[in-house]
C-alpha cells in the first residue's frame, strides 16, 4: 500500500478531516477554468493572417497547373486567366 498517497489509507487524516471508509467523499468541484474545456488552450485569436498567394484560389490553381503539365502553357490561356481573375478578386496584384 502506498503511504505517500492520502487516499490509500481511509483512516488517514486529509486536510484535517478524518476519512470515513463507510461513507463516500463529497463530490469534487472543478474550477471554471478546468471545467470549461478539456482542450488545451490555443493561441489568442488575433488579427487574421493575410492569405498567401500560394494558398489562394486552390481550385483554379490546380486546374491551371494540370493543364500546363499535360498540354503546355500555350494551350491553357483560359485557365490561366481564370486563375488570375480569382487572385485579383482576393486583392492580389497579378
From TrEMBL:
Primary residence: cytoplasm
GO molecular function terms noted in the UniProt entry: copper chaperone activity; cuprous ion binding; enzyme activator activity
Record-linked Pfam families: COX17
Repeat is among the record's keywords: no
Subcellular location: Cytoplasm; Mitochondrion intermembrane space
Entry binding sites for Cu cation: 54-55
Source taxon at top rank: Eukaryota
SUPFAM superfamilies in the cross-refs: Cysteine alpha-hairpin motif
GO biological process: mitochondrial respiratory chain complex IV assembly; positive regulation of cell population proliferation
A GO-annotated cellular component: mitochondrial intermembrane space
UniProt entry keywords in alphabetical sequence: Acetylation, Chaperone, Copper, Cytoplasm, Disulfide bond, Metal-binding, Mitochondrion
Subunit and partners: Interacts with COA1. Interacts with the chaperone CHCHD4; this is important for correct folding and the formation of disulfide bonds that stabilize the structure.
Function: Copper metallochaperone essential for the assembly of the mitochondrial respiratory chain complex IV (CIV), also known as cytochrome c oxidase. Binds two copper ions and delivers them to the metallochaperone SCO1 which transports the copper ions to the Cu(A) site on the cytochrome c oxidase subunit II (MT-CO2/COX2).
Family designation: Belongs to the COX17 family.
Protein name: Cytochrome c oxidase copper chaperone
Source organism of this protein record: Gopherus evgoodei (Goodes thornscrub tortoise)
Amino acid at each position: 500500500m502506498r503511504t505517500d498517497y492520502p487516499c490509500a489509507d481511509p483512516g488517514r487524516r486529509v486536510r484535517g478531516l478524518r476519512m470515513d471508509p463507510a461513507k463516500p467523499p463529497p463530490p469534487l468541484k472543478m474550477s471554471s477554468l478546468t471545467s470549461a474545456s478539456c482542450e488545451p488552450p490555443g493561441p489568442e485569436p488575433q488579427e487574421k493572417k493575410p492569405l498567401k498567394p500560394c494558398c489562394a484560389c486552390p481550385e483554379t490553381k490546380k486546374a491551371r497547373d494540370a493543364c500546363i503539365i499535360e498540354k503546355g502553357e500555350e494551350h491553357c490561356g483560359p485557365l490561366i486567366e481564370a486563375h488570375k481573375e480569382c487572385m485579383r478578386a482576393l486583392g492580389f496584384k497579378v
